[in-house]
Amino acid sequence: MTRHPANGLDDTVHQRVRLGILTIAHEGRRVEFSYLRDNLEVTAGNLSQHLGVLESAGLITIEKGYAGKRARTWVTLTKEGEAALAVEIAQLKLLISQMERTGTPTGPSERSIMGLCLCSSQIVSTPA
Amino acid sequence: MTTEAAYPADDPHRLLSEARELTQRVRRDQRATWFPLLVFAALTFAAIPATRYGGHHLDCRSVPGGGVCRVYSDTEFVYWPIAFVLAYTAIAAFYIRRSRARGLGTRVRPYTVAGIIVAAALTAVALWEFHNPPVDQNLLGLNLTGLPNRMASPAAAIGLALLVLAWAERNRALLLLTIAYLVAVLVPVTFGGVPNETQHNPPWFSLPLAFQGSVLLLGGIGFAVAQRPLRSPAP
What is the pTM (predicted TM-score) of this model? Predict the structure, then answer.
């Protein structure tokens, strides 16, 4: 039996803000907290929570310091973070192509496709 | 219907398109293509007086069917190596300062390292040729139109470094400009002038440099306009 691509999605990464953090950190190598906050359009508190989740998972490292008198927080992607981002992007592409192949709608009605709920940051199996 | 209503927050389409959009935005924010182009335009224009008034050594030999002349310029061994080091230092400092101000890292290191390696390699080639002049030159009285000589020129070093910058910035527009620049540098154009044994410092020496500098200057201005920060309209 073929494994469904949604099973390869990591709950830690499969979330809008956290995927955004990893994407920006991947391109920017070393990114400042304020750049992430401005570009992801989240509050500082919300961003801190997501950074904490990613740091606990070992996907990013957080470095605090000063630029002159201003406190700065720098975020850097780890090798595990690089790998997790690559897997997530690959799984998303696979999932989309599978949906398009089977003609499954990709709007809100997809929430219960194939016994999977894609409506929140958690991928939850639902009873048939 | 808005996107928000059509797609839930963690919809694969939306996540993927947002990731792509963020990638493009970060790359746009990292680009400062105009600065290296303007620096190299300034170096190229400054090389005109350095070439014109710097020392020249013309080594001409008579061979059956014509003559072979080699022009050695002091700018090759003095001006350009120093200018390249200063240019890459300035470019690296500019990118690092900008990166700190924006809170976003850049990939300037591979560009700077590659640029210095290319410049050092081409200077080494020029020095090697100076001490080991090739004997099999074309017999038209001038060997300056040879592709190998052009490949080992400062202009080609600038072009090769710009290719690395185009890769580092993922910048297709710069790639196209660099290819056009390299073609202009490597295609033999003599601007109608041919040196003779009595004319050690002809005025047309500056024309290729002026042309190359103009290409870099126009490119730099074009990128500066395209990459200028967008200001929101006044209320």
Answer: 0.72
